[in-house]
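Q: I'm writing up a methods section and want to include an example of the input and output format. Could you take the sequence below and give the corresponding predicted structure tokens, formatted cleanly so I can copy it straight into the document?
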Amino acid sequence: MNQCVIFDCYQTLIYKKNLERITQNFSHKILKRKISIECIKYGYNIVYDRYKFKHPHFQTQEKLNNFYIEYNKELYKIIGISISSNEALQLNKLLKKTIWACYSEVQLTLNNLKKRKISMGLIANWTETLNEVLQKVNLGHYFDFVHSSHDLKIDKPNPKIFFKALNNFIKKFDKIYYVGDDYELDIVPSNKAGLIPILIDRNDQYPSSVDCIRIKTLTDLIKIIK
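A: Here is the clean output for your methods example:
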């Protein structure tokens, strides 16, 4: 059987290392407030959900800065703290220095699929930096194709992003899987596009009865894709 596995990127394959710790240190040193890592994680989860349909497309640095000022102020509002625009921008400058890292099981899983000659690709809501980031975490060489929403001019959850990315390529495979961490952004649109969606749910965010294949770790793909 000719199969292809396509991945989302952020929080599916990679994450920002020490994101919460940097935010905690900023809170302590600049805001003079002690905040637990658990509280900060909660804040990031909520603010991500509120902004995930607002994938940024900005023509100027000023508009980009304004987006992250709003984002960081909302983050702290969720935590219960009011911060100024200058403080929000200062935090953003610190967060730009965070290092991208792979989840521990990613390379093991991709190596297994590659050795079995299963075609792999990546389709993600991302800026023009996607390929650069993949090279930094040593993942770029695994994929037969990489498409960002920036290049395609379409964002998930619009299912047209998959049609545009795959085009006639989709006819070459008996099965095409799409692996992502977000039900609304990844599972719903990939299903509408005729792909087989797989939800990676490392933190038990979704119920076990969710209407798609649900996995706890990427290594589960090794058993599913035979």
